[in-house]
Design a protein that fits this description.
single chain; 6-stranded mixed beta sheet; 4-stranded antiparallel beta sheet; 12 strands
Length: 312
């Protein structure tokens, strides 16, 4: 949970130039309240020597299929790759009169045995379309195939709890994937796993969502380190654990920043909806004076990630 990503793409002895901190702030009430007690001396010291040179546009980020930390590398001209690998998550679509909601898959409590049984049932149908599936965890099946190439997919966290209409795949093979989803809905309707889950009053697995990991989006990214320490506690609104992980992360930043070989040239702080990008920047005399009179406040910077406005 404390590892920097992507590790597998780091070259020996190389130091990332860009740090991306995911879930640095959050709209969830427990985490918003926890900001008042957050003490991050190392991040504060780093940001004192930097200036926020860019911030996300609310409308643009809201329309993006990717989360802020997944979009961050575009700031240094690293574009996501829509390759032949993706992740597939079994899920439950709640069908209403005028909308279809994708319920949060984490709340299904799908077991490994259930997931593997479902995978065995759907795998032959995917293979007919040239998609090969491999079990990784109850909610993650790794997929490969040319059908996925050049297809942008919306992040699972972006869509969970939302109407799926605006996030359905768009691209050269969108119709084939939609057909496959319809076939799976019919196949899974009377599957023994779903029969039992239905009897127990649990959500059934009636569809799937296709998305990509950071490693799949940026397979050759050596200049960036993604820190995902805060993802798990932020996802469940666990303020105590989120604060604890922030302390671990702040200590890591202090150690890295003091290293003569850190090579760090920017840091991007992200919430679920916004990002703020900081770089070493020679301030004007007015900015220098303002910074002396009113030193940068880390909490204000983090709150700006959820308010969508500039920090004072």
């Amino acid at each position: 949970m404390n590892d920097a990503l992507p590790l597998s793409n780091s070259t020996a002895g190389a130091s990332p130039q860009h740090w991306v901190i995911a879930y640095a702030s959050s709209h969830l009430a427990p985490l918003k309240q926890a900001l008042d007690t957050l003490y991050l001396p190392h991040l504060g010291k780093i940001l004192q020597g930097m200036t926020c040179v860019a911030k996300s546009d609310a409308e643009v980020q809201a329309a993006s299929p990717l989360l802020p930390h997944e979009n961050a590398p575009t700031l240094w001209d690293q574009l996501p790759v829509w390759g032949e690998e993706a992740l597939i998550t079994p899920c439950h679509w709640q069908v209403g009169m005028n909308e279809v909601l994708l319920l949060n898959p984490a709340e299904m409590q799908l077991s490994a045995e259930e997931s593997q049984q479902l995978l065995a049932a759907v795998k032959p149908y995917f293979e007919e379309d040239g998609l090969h599936l491999f079990y990784e965890s109850p909610l993650i099946w790794r997929a490969t195939g040319s059908l996925l190439k050049d297809m942008p997919f919306a992040s699972l966290e972006k869509v969970a709890g939302q109407h799926i209409k605006d996030w359905l795949p768009q691209g050269p093979h969108a119709r084939a994937l939609q057909r496959l989803q319809s076939e799976m809905q019919m196949l899974l309707y009377q599957h023994p796993v779903n029969d039992l889950r239905s009897q127990q009053g649990r959500w059934t697995v009636n569809s799937f969502w296709v998305h990509r990991s950071l490693e799949q989006l940026y397979p050759n990214q050596h200049a960036t380190v993604f820190r995902m320490d805060l993802q798990q506690p932020a996802g469940i609104g666990n303020a105590k654990e989120w604060l604890a992980q922030w302390q671990v992360l702040d200590a890591w930043m202090g150690h890295q920043f003091q290293s003569a070989n850190s090579g760090m040239s920017s840091i991007t702080l992200c919430s679920e909806t916004h990002w703020r990008h900081y770089r070493p920047h020679a301030p004007s005399w007015f900015q220098s004076l303002k910074r002396r009179l009113s030193p940068l406040n880390v909490q204000a910077e983090l709150r700006a990630l959820i308010a969508g406005v500039s920090a004072p």
